[in-house]
Batch of 2 targets.
Target 1
Amino acid sequence: MGKKVLLTVLTIIMTLSFVSVNLAAPEGNKRKGKYLFRKSCRSCHQEGSTAVELSPISKTQADWDKVFSNESYKNLPCKAEWEKQSDKDLLDIYTYMYKHAFDSPSPLKCK
Ligand code: HEC
């Protein structure tokens, strides 16, 4: 009996933590985000181009949060490029960067 109660409590705790982790993560489409990033941002943000090389792995999840929150892109020289994207597209790009950030479970370099 004691074991069963313990198991139930553990299951509930694990389910709850899983749900909260999922709620914290951005919910765009990361595959579309990758496509958009390569189409609209990579031309400048790659080695040998005009701006610093950028890939999801270039920053931590917390850093990507900062870049994409509170319209902080308005301080960047590429502000105009951001403004060409719809809110939905920016959410997709953010999701791609966040889910493959340096400290994510699956860090990725954009190729
Ligand atoms: C026309 C070229 C160009 C395009 C296109 C462009 N950027 Fe930029 N971006 C720059 C330049 C120049 C800087 C200033 C820093 C530098 O020299 O790399 C910059 C800075 C940034 C930074 C800050 C760099 C850092 O290390 O924190 C981020 C983040 C960024 N851009 C994201 C984007 C995203 C996302 C897109 C696509 C929506 C994009 N950029 C499109 C030229 C561009």
Target 2
Amino acid sequence: MHVWRILTLILGVSLMTLAGCGATPAEPELPPGTLSSTPPPLGDAEQGRELFVNTLALTGSPNCISCHVVEAGEIEVVGPALVGLASLASQRDPNLTAEEYLYRSLVVPNEYIVSGYNAGIMPRTYGLYLSREQIGDLLAYMLTLD
Ligand code: HEC
């Protein structure tokens, strides 16, 4: 009885660790053709903030906050700090609006690699596990990061 509890605890923790670092070998790619090229309508920024810090609990995908800081002066972790993102997003690609850039960064993160960072680190599963509504909430939240 006791042993089982410990074993399931260890299994749970290791699964969460794997999910947390995002680069599990079995990580599915986005199935071709299922990705809408248009971003969903902007949703609720407050819900998006919740999703950003609690992604794993709410969706089963790794927490954004585990790799990205959002406050000026915080020390960067794995990915770029998202301070100033609202204005940066409109300048990254002249062919994309801020919403389109942020949407694509989220669902096809290897398409545009922020200079100084590596491809293949950010999970490519968000487009599979987040609903269009959740993505709309995250986009609204990211547009508040100035
Ligand atoms: C395992 C670490 C990791 C996680 C988790 C992660 N990211 Fe990232 N992210 C990165 C890295 C590394 C980059 C830079 C490389 C690139 O451009 O793909 C990046 C780039 C980005 C960019 C582009 C930033 C810019 O300055 O242009 C956005 C936007 C972004 N991530 C949003 C998110 C959101 C939202 C989530 C959660 C749903 C998330 N990330 C989860 C590692 C991560």
